[in-house]
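Continuing the batch. This is chain 6 of the set; chains 1 through 5 are on the previous pages. Same settings as before, nothing changed between runs. Recording input and output for traceability.
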Amino acid sequence: MHSENKYDVIVAGSGPSGIAAALTSARGGAKTLLIEWQGCVGGISTSGLMSHFTGSVDSRLYDEMLKKAAGKNYFNSDRTTVIDPEMLKITYYEMLSEAGVDIILYSFISDVLTNGNKVEGVVTTGKSGTSVYTAKIVIDCTGDGDVAYRAGAEYIKGREEDGSMQPATLMFKVAGVDTERAVFPACFEDTVETEKGELQALAKKLLPHPAGHVLLYRSTLPGIVTCNMTNITGIDGTDERDMTRAETECRKQIIPIINFLREYVPGYEKCYCISSASLIGIRETRHFKGEYTLTKDDILSARVFDDWVVKGAHFNFDVHNITGAGLDITGIQKKFNQPKGYTIPYRCLIPLKTDGLLLCGRNISGTHMAHSNFRAMPICFALGEAAGTAAAIAVKSGIKVRDVNASKIQEKLL
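Output for chain 6:
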């Protein structure tokens, strides 16, 4: 084992939760490695071509990141939740570099080193072959919980009653939009009447199933709009064959969607595709069993846990239709009427029987319905901030990460 392959903390996955976890771990004094299987950091927020950070949370690190990213925006330097993916990539790299985080890209985590029930590192497969990295703590920010799964942590997949999972989407951008006249339906419950009919109804009738809704978002750049309109149901985001089918089917939908926009949507008469995501958006896969499982009722009651490590989390029940286009019968977007932010306890990040590992991002311990809320990127960012903080405290104190007192994490976060 090369000494340079030994770390205090390994963060697996560089989506919003992974970025935040790596930053707070390194800023807390832990020697930190961030591992990513793609060619750039940021996950769904960059490679996934996401339109904006949706939902909100009380997090100093999230606010810092938004401010730094907005400062690189040529057309709007205010704090904005609208994403410019290229500027966000640069922002992430600058922040990681300043914090002293080591980064390994193009490396897929193919196995986990365990000693009994304790995770002690990861095995990666990359251009140069197989590599082994050891750590005192691994933070699983892979979204699908690839590290926790390979370590044998207990989980369920999808919805409790039948294992069904939310559909996947490939985001893309169109240019040539007349934004003075353009419409921007931002959620499934937004209806837009036009001379040719109501847009959501037209999309459901005319677009290739399971596409069939209109979600359009302003970008930071003039004349360019981000489209959240491709859709694929019945796929398992942990299966590469399903992932390949999802990519293929979603890309087939792009031209029919653009033709629809040009024909039926005001302001889009001359639009054309300029880019599409290099990472398909997987909304739901494994839900791991932690020391506590966050529920729908915890969110609706805005429950404040004594051992909270995320506070002020606020979003809706963003359940996309599991069998087709639009919002699922269980979902509530614009009509979600819980105005208060909720908290997430540290116990949701601690897998039941696995040591040396923290769950983070959308794979934390929560029900299908709770997950539809906390999977929002700002909340995942705050989960990463909490996990990285906890890991740094554990390293510094020489204790198990599950034994870190939540009050110590709270002190750092506040």
